[in-house]
Every structure is written in structure tokens, then in C-alpha cells.
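Explain this one:

_____
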Amino acid sequence: MSRNRARGRRYDNEPKLNFKKVIGVIVALAVIVMIIVSIINIVKSSGNKIEVKNYSYYTVYENGKFGVINNDGEVLIEPSYDEIITIPNNSKPIFICTYDINDSDGTYKTKAVNEKNEDILVGYDKIEVIDNYDSKQNIWYEDNILRVSKNGKYGLIDFEGKEVLACDYDEITALNGVKNNIIVKKGGKVGLVNEKGQTIIPVQYKEILTLKEGYKNEYIIVNENDQYGLISTSGTILIEPQYEMVKYLKSSNLFAVKDSGVWKLINTEDGSIVIDGGYDDIVEARTDSIVVVDDGNYGIIDTNNEEKIEPQYEDLKYAFSIYYIAKKDGNYGIINLENEEIIPFEYISMTYVDEAGFIQADKSETETVVFDSNLGQKISGIISEVNIEKGYIKAYVNNEYKYYNFKFEEKNASDLLTENNLFLSKKDGKYGYIDKTGQIVIDYIYDDATEQNSYGFAAVKKDGLWGSINKVGAVSKEPSVNLDNNIYIDFIGEWHLSNNGLYYEK
């Protein structure tokens, strides 16, 4: 694919100025300025603001073809592409299309188009999104850079088409589980760069791995002899690559290493070996409390290798303060550093939600209990959503949805969903919608329904079929779609999220 760069025209013989045209242009500009000033004065006097709408973009699928819609449900690119259109950042009108696929030799072509289906970012053999995923199989794209290739080599550009990395590399991929960390490969060696193309780790290792998903302070490096070490973002070698494995322990300076089959604990501040063997595994390190595994059982020791809690649990992980989530006889509970049982072992799973400061414990498949930081029980029901950004918990309690802030104060949906203008309400087993004052906007006629999404659409169910309403309560799609196989129900206009969660369809 050749690239035709847009360039300003340059003439060998510059024409002379036409003063009549110049004066005409000046007069025209003056008129335009006067019009603009008048508009501004009108807006000021009326107290109104000129609103520039920001759109989001989504891939859609219809009749075996892929296209693009905006968050109003308007079709921008008619479904006409055989392969899925990838959108690296749904707030930017940049869509990557794949075409001319040859299954016999594995070749294909790609291009970037805008919301008018016009080719953009041209001049490369290929232009592609950089996909990433984590251990929970959450999939995303790097949302500010694209991978490009030219003459068999790869580089990076930003969304404006500016070169971030020249096409000098054999491969470019994402470091799995971490955003804005890009693996570059050249001559059989790999390095790490950020989204601006700045070097984090030089290209001189066999492999680079994350210590923990989403963690960017240090990285595992592997040399040509398959020996593991640790490097910081500044390029400082914290642990020389000479071990069979390096493991993150939720500590800034204590790391576990495996040497000749033996787990050791290293303090990277001075390079000392704190614990030199004696355990099947080292799991976590919190100041002077280290979770270890001995003969398959979990316990806690200190940095002097003295036992604080005898290894006796099936699992043990730090929660907060002096409390640990422990597993015994197949169930979970809470103990403290004195090995006292604080919450009984009667839960099938238990997690500490660090961002919100509470314990979420499942008593059964249909009942979850939430404990506050004082380990008092606050909520019992089905937790359907924990929204860290907006600071609320949505739970199904006593056959209805309730909202709580992180102080466990019950709130109205209107207190928390401040951008919504309609709110889900239930009466006599049926769902309808009310406004912020509590007035009924849509009568209680639906068997199931959702709150409005960020674009004002809500899903409604009647007689086993789903449809949607818009932000003023008008029907966007009559209930007509069976979504029994969908894990998540969401509509944008007439389009509903597919059961694979990758695109919308009708």
C-alpha cells in the first residue's frame, strides 16, 4: 500500500499579488468576524450555551456484515465489511477494517477509515489495533496507538498519524495484562516501550513478563539461558537474572525467587536473602508478616523466620489491617494475626474490595454478604454491581434493587446516577420508570428492565422478549428480541449487545 501524503503546493513561479482580491478577502474576513461577534453576543444575552456533542462509536453486525454506529444508534458505516471492524478507542472516529483475506496463504489487507468511511492514516502496508487481555479474558485495545508495518517491519503511530516508533522492528505486541506497555522485538531480542515510544527496558532480553496484572513498577526479565531476574522502570537491575522464577508478593521491596527448586525471600533494598528455603511456597509479604505454604498448608511467619500462625489453612491472603481471609474445610472466614476467628468459616468465597474498603463474601450462589471495615455485616442479598468510579453498590435485596454508597447508606438511584433522567422502579412485580421527583413516566408494564446506560437507553422486557426505550421514555425498539443467552443486556437505539459482547446487532 502506497502512501500519498497531503502536502502544501509549491510553485516554481510564484504569482504576483492581486490587490483587488486581497482587499476582497479582508472585507470578507471582517464580515465573518462581525457575524461571529454577533452570535457570541446573542448567546451571552440569552444565557444559552453552544453545545458540542461528543460521540462514541461501536461495531455492529447485520446480515453477515459489519459496520459502525454512534451512541445515538445512528448508522455511520453501513454493515458492508466481511470481517469485524475494530475500534481502538470508542471516543475517536478511527475504525480499522480488514479485507481481501486469503485463507490459503494467510494474507490480508487492512485500512483505517473515519466516520464517513474515508481512508485515513494511509501510507503503510498494514495498520492494526494492538489487542490485549488479562487472566479473566477481558479483552481491550491500546487506545492511543496503532501498529503499522512497512516492508516487513513494524512501528507505531498515534491517532493523529504521528510516528511514535519507526518501522524498524520484527514484531510489536502488547505486554499482556498491562495497559500502555508494548513489547518490541528485533534480532531475536525483546524490549519494552510505553505508548509514547519511550524505552522502558532496552531490547536485550529473551522475554519480559509482568509481576502482576496491571503492575508497572518492576518487570520480570528472562535472559537467553531462561534465567529470571527483576528490573525497574528506570532500567535498574533489582535482581540479577539467575533464578528459575521471580514472584510478586504485594510488597515494594520483598520478592520471592526460586533457586534450584527452593523458594527464597529477597530484600531488593540491600540484596539480602531474608528467608532461605524451608517452605513449599511464599505467597505474600506485608512488612513483618509473610504468608508461606508448608506441606500444602498456609501460615504466617515473620522476617526472622519465626512462626506467627502455624500453617494450617487451605488458603490465606491479606485483607486489611491485621485481618486475613482464610480457608478451612472448604469454606472462607476472617482471622487476625493472633489467629482468632473474627468471621466464621461459612462462606463459599470471599474477597476484599480494596478500592471501596469492604469484604464481599458469598454465602451461596444467590446470597452475598458485605462487611464494612469494622467487619460488621451491612448488606445481604445479590450484589449485581460494585461501581468504584461512582462509589456505589447495587444489590437485589428483598425482591427489589437497592443502592448503597460505600458508607452503606441506602440511596435513591437518583442520588447516585446523577446523569440519568429516568429511574427504574418496581411495583406489584412489574417494572416502570420514574423521574427525579418520583413521578411515574412509564407505567409498571414490564417484566424486567435495566437502568439507563450512559447514552440514555434502557432495556425493557415483556412477554419474554427485550426491547429498548430512549432517555425521554420513548420506545426505540419494541420488545421483540430473545436475549436468554446474553450475560449482559444493553441497547443503543435498536441495536443490542451480542452475546459475545464484541458488537451490537438487531
Summary: The radius of gyration is 29 Å. Helices lie at 19-46, 413-416. The first helix runs from residue 19 to 46.
